[in-house]
Amino acid sequence: MVIKEWQEFSEIRTKSRAYFCYLFNKNLPNGLPEISEVSVLNRLRKIMGDLSSCEGVYLLDDNGIQVSDTYLPNGERKSDIGAIRSMRAYYDRAMKEKSCTITDPYPSLLNNELTVTASKPILDDKWKCLYFVCGKIPLLDYFKCSLP
């Protein structure tokens, strides 16, 4: 990554994190008495529709194991159920912070482009972590879409 892109990313990171957290918290509030995988996925796919450049969304369990397909923007799915994501920065950071977060840019496994991932833990009414929602945005599109 060139220094200019890193500087641009650094300048908008805080505002972008706030925006993604707003989207996640608005559509996927914590503390609900009944949370199902289906309801979380439906809301996550709605968020994907709101972010035209989102390259994929998926759901992890509380141990960082992927429990859903990766939903791609063209309506296709990539079968990644069972993939271990617990060593990924987006899971680790969201787990430690217990809140929405955005990663530093990294090469995407979906398309090899530089990407950032927004992730958020989903907590039930007893504040137990049930899932982690994840959404990937290509870095070049991130500069365009992350701020309303």
Can you characterise this structure?
With 148 residues, this protein is of the alpha+beta class. The chain contains 4 helices and 7 strands, in the order ααβββαββββα. Strands 1, 4, 5, 6 and 7 form a 5-stranded antiparallel sheet that branches. A hairpin with a 6-residue loop joins strand 5 and strand 6 (114-123). The longest helix has 25 residues, at 3-27. It is globular and about 45 Å long.
Shape: globular
Distance between the termini: 25 Å
* Spans where pLDDT lies below 50 across 5 or more residues: none
Question: How large is the count of helical segments?
Answer: 4
Structural class: alpha+beta
Q: Compute the average pLDDT.
A: 84
Q: How large a portion of the residues is in β-strands, by DSSP E?
A: 15-25%
The radius of gyration is 14 Å
- State the major sheet: 5 strands, antiparallel
Compute the number of strand runs. 7
Order of helices and strands: HHEEEHEEEEH
Overall helicity:
25-40%
What attributes does this structure have?
7 strands; globular; five-stranded antiparallel sheet; 4 helices
Short description:
This protein is α+β, with helices and mostly antiparallel strands and 148 residues long. It has helices spanning 3-27, 37-50, 89-97, 139-145; strands at 56-61, 70-71, 77-78, 101-102, 106-107, 114-123, 129-138.
